[in-house]
What we know:
The structure holds two protein chains of two kinds. Chain A folds into five domains: 8-79 and 224-264, Nucleotidyltransferase, domain 5 (2-Layer Sandwich); 82-218, Rossmann fold (3-Layer(aba) Sandwich); 278-339 and 432-493, ATPase, nucleotide binding domain (Nucleotidyltransferase, domain 5), CATH 3.30.420; 497-607, Dna Ligase, domain 1 (2-Layer Sandwich), CATH 3.30.1490; 624-698, no CATH class. Helices cover 30% and strands 27% of the residues of chain A. Chain A has 17 helices and 35 strands. In chain A, the strands form nine sheets. In chain A, strands 13, 14, 15, 20, 23, 24, 31, 34 and 35 form a nine-stranded mixed β-sheet that branches. In chain A, helix 2 packs across helix 7, helix 10 crosses helix 11 and helix 12 (420-442) crosses helix 13. Chain A is globular. Chain B has eleven helices and 20 strands.
Amino acid sequence: MPDAPATIRAATDVGGTFTDLVYFFVDPDTGVQEIVTAKSDTTPPDFEQGVLNVIAKSGVAVDEIAFLAHGTTVVINALTERKGVKTALITTEGFRDSLEIARGNRPDYFNLHYEKPVPFVPRYLRREIPGRITHEGRERQALDLSGLPGIIDHFRKEQVEAVAICLLHAYADPAHEQAVFERVTELWPEVSVVASHQITREWREYERTSTAVLSAYVQPVAERYLGRLADGVRDGGFGGQLYIMQSNCGVDSVEKTKEIPITMVESGPASGFWGAAELGRLIGEPNVLALDIGGTTAKCSLIEGGQVKIISDYWIERSRASAGYPIMVPVVDLVEIGNGGGSIAWVDDFGKLHVGPQSAGALPGPAAYGRGGTLPTTTDANLALGRINQDYFCGGEIEADMVAVERSLGELADKLGVDHADAARGVVRIANNNMINALKLISLNRGHDPRDFTLVAFGGGGGMHAVALASELGIRKVVVPRAADVFSAWGMLMSDLRRDYFVTRLLGLKAGNADALDAVVDDVTDVAVAQFAREGISRDQVRFRRYGNLRYENQEHGVEVLLPDGPIDADAIGRIAETFHEAYEREYTYRLDAPVEFVGTHLVAIAEVGKLTPVPLPATGRELEAAVKGERSVDYATEGIHVATVYDGALLEPGMRLEGPAIIETTGSTVVVHPDNTLKVDTYGNLIIELDLIIDERRAP
Amino acid sequence: MTAMTESDPITLEIIQNSLQAISDEMFAAFRKTAMSAIIYEVLDMGTAITDAEGNLASSGAGIPAFVGVLDKAVKRIIELNGEPGEIARGDIFATNDPFYGGVTHLNDVVLAMPVFAGDELVAWTANIAHWNDVGGMVPGSISNEAHEIFQEGLRLPGVKLIAGGVPIKSVMEIMKCNSRLPDFLQGDMWAGIAAARVGERRILDLVGKYGLATFVAALSHFMDYGEQVARRALEGLPKGTFSLEEEQDSGAVYRVTVEITDDEFIVDLRDNPDQDYGPNNASRDGSLVAAQMVFMNIMGSHGSANGGHFRPLTLLTRPGSVFDPNPPAAFAVYYEVEIRLYDLIWRCLAPYLGERLPSGSFASICGTFIGGPHPDTGRHFTIVEPQVGGWGASGAADGNSAMFSGFHGDTFNCPAEVAETRYGLYVDRLALNDAPGGEGEHRGGKGIVVEYRVRSNGCFFTCAYTRNKHKPWALDGGREGSPNYAEVVRTDGTVEEFAVVTALEVNEGDVIRIHTGHGGGYGDPKLRPREQVLEDLRNGFTTDEQARAVYGLEEPAA
């Protein structure tokens, strides 16, 4: 069916080096959904120029783009490279040091030389004002703004560019924060200001203060960026809707994003995980472990019942070596490890092999790039084992320097006292094990059994490792999406306008509190409805999902359960309690006969904004043999060396089936199909790999 | 079948990584389900896996002072339950008594579960956590007045709590009945049981996948690796005998001699006072944990510890002394004795070990106990919390401000907003301490001042802080840090000051103000770069007067 002209949906992604464009359109003659990609240089500081350049380069007519989704690393880069603005903080009297005291933890606990994260606002720019709200949201001490003019003069003199406000218990009642916000804006209209309640309504003052501070720190940078981008594409002739990818797996308008740009902080991984959730829905796989293996990291997330898990317990720069910095914004729950194609393999002083987290990056890159890299990477090991085609490296764009590969692996092998092949197998096995542990963290440590999930693997390295990981975890089915290397862009185009609201309000879960509980949920729903209304989206266009965060009285960590639709009355309270007991027991193996507390609510509000509708890939009736490129010897590490049939991924089409051992090659990725695997191509062109079930039976509890 | 039976190094490595992952998973499960804030927030808890004999194979996150506890507990449980068949599949044992493998004090309850592959005992999973109340003479069970362990609560002498998967009701009822907070006890106990069982399941998965022989080989290989790391670290240390004696706030004098040879690290504590009449005693196992921690610090280890790391370490103690007391010694405040010992060994070696060891820190748990009726609900509340304080400077950097002591690790303080809700106190202030102290070329990190305003009558306050009279020590010409203490400001304005107090009555309007110390400085303050002194002045980390008098600043402050 030919579509109207302006139906092209495009996604742009501004990376450190390249700005990518992916667009999808339905060919009016064939009905085929075509995917076109283009790449051009990123152009700092005028990033919008790079976006316009890549649009021009792709050949797409700007005025035919109906929906343009934009993902950017501008926020996370400004944070990690410390390229935000000079920021000051206004807080409650007695609490200016909260930001520096933080939580006092030291994850690297045997290290006496631990370095505590340095606060983003130094002490002299942290100022206090009197006034107290209680935990119940009552005023205990009136707000005294008489000192504010002096504080603002001080900030001006210090050339502060952004002011964060965070007052105690503002999550319960933001009145004092609002008053400070308004007065600061009056006194100093030019400065960028953000108050904690605008971002989050959850308790814990250090986390909320950190959130407000980091948000203020990046706000001017991100606002300028978004403003120039919107103006730039409009001046370039774009007349469609521009949406910005968010960390909660949704997109949002430019205007809304400009208000609180820190919500973009993890937008990069979010789009891929959303893609995995949408793909799961499309192909009837509601429970998905999503794995994105890139050049320097691997990231994973868990999707249950078609829903991504959005949390507000998010930290940057947190690791076994550092406490990091909290940001209380809705972020997809993910685990990231320093383990990608470019991760360097090394041997420690005691002869133990490690892979990552150091990466060879793009320069020098893996030894195989022939750009002076001498250290072996996961990619080099995959080449040496014949898993990656040395004659079709990077889609044939780079000639693999196999001499450098063998040299780098040789040094590793000498240190380990094994031969080259064993060293290469070791690298792949350790890399796989690192990723298995990441997948365990996101599943087992959250109370889920990975055997109940389908593994959806994407990114450049997803298909290379997916089957080995699945088999270790007892997962029966692996899906490698069509165009796995641009899957994040696909996810962006599948996104809805989505907003997540978290509100803390401690209430006993009992019939007598039904009205209060109903009011909490209603109030936040009203806030959401009002926000959508301002953008011309009516209530009936918005879908809501309401969660309660529940726990046994006196516990700390809650379990999120879906609340029933409709008003929350005494009857609903009983059903909520039963849902909680069941969810708790499922996750922790026991339940208690103890009172239950409602800690707060999490509201998800979703409006559809014309996302892509995937269409089946037409089958031409091509024979499978036509897709065969040849065969080669492939080392499957623990499963031995086998002669694998090599297929051209571009020539596979729906309905085709093949057996492992096999290798599927496309320009952007390689899929390794193990012996005894069965692969079939589904109607959308995705590769569905079924694993031998012996593994699962052996591990049955 | 793709299961491997050969013990190639990569397979061993993968099993070791998996054991770490299991310890972490047990930790996550425990933390999420525990009932007491001291477990889930302060993370006064630990998890571990040992081999069949109780040698430490892997430990989870949490606090380093618990890392070396669980192996000792498991070994003692094995000894105490030595009859054939006494240890069986599905059992869970409990101990909290230092005379029966409990290592610390009665509040810390260890749960240990044997893991059987078929009929063979292959490993143990274990965890420890601070339970809020196990009975005894005061709420919270910790009293500075106790002089016999019988006064400190219910003693669990390595007994079975669950037999073959079935809870032993009589034991559980006795435990609940002996606690002032039976609901908390029950919740925390089940959290520990669930964590131990998760570990058991995962270990059996591993054994099933790789085979028993490979699994056992991996454990043994991992401990050998730990030993190698330790021996390599020993090679780099100066050899000789190092001694130190130090007077404590109580007036007692503690002494240590450390002998470092090519292959041994011997900590001799035999020349120490007789055991304390009160609760200021550390069990021999507890003293060993303190020595093990310093040893790990010196090794510069970033990973987790296992039994192999400690093979070169020997501890000598004298039965009947404060570091190896006889029954019926009391242990409630063991943690201050143990951290004093830890700090003593550290201080003894610091001048000789170059950059490895920084100056002394506030080095007290600063255990703070406040309880009473909640003003909003009328229910009883109890705060059991350590405090954050300043760490010592090193030759390379200023000390960290406001961190938990070296006994703690991934331990979190309680947010004021949560404390006000949960405990019904007002937190009037939480600030870095502006007292003088800790100056140096690199300065000590800052302690804190926190103020709790009591909202109901009939509350109590208990604390037992050390490093009060004798302040955090400095190195290389730096200045001493500042003291740890608490003040109680009464509504009439009178101020009482304490380092140690038991069950002091506090009432509505009284303010409990806690001060924790700065860490010691490193190097002559006059050598501190001027721009850093000016920055400290601007941030209020030093005063004009100190900047001139101590740092020798001549230029006028900006």
